[in-house]
Amino acid sequence: MVAINTNYDRKSEVKAFDDTKGVKGLVDAGITEVHRIFHHPPESDVHYPINNSGSDSEATQFSISVIDLQGLDRLDCPTKRKEIVAKVGEASETWGFFQIVNHGIPVDVLEEIKDGVRGFFEL
What string of H, E and C letters represents the secondary structure of 49-90? Predict the structure, then answer.
């Protein structure tokens, strides 16, 4: 079990990070270790609250919509396609992004994409 430091003021550290021009500012400053705001406990169910109310007592936790494409290619099940399209629409309108699972894209292709994106942002 990981102990969480109750004196840790993540909001202040995120603000300080933003003030340094983000990741580019950290790289330009010659950082040698991953900044604390990017450390996450190993428990997968830990969420950091997003305070959108201005009051710590009313902080809300959010999670990314996960959309499963399993069965989308089945021609004998048109309701499945409508269901998936509705989920994509809802996630897009509500949050603007979502995660897709069971899309059929091979892992090696995804790794090549990540390498390309990483290379772009390292320019």
Answer: CECCCCCHHHCECCCCCEEECCCCCCCCCHHHHHHHHHHHHH
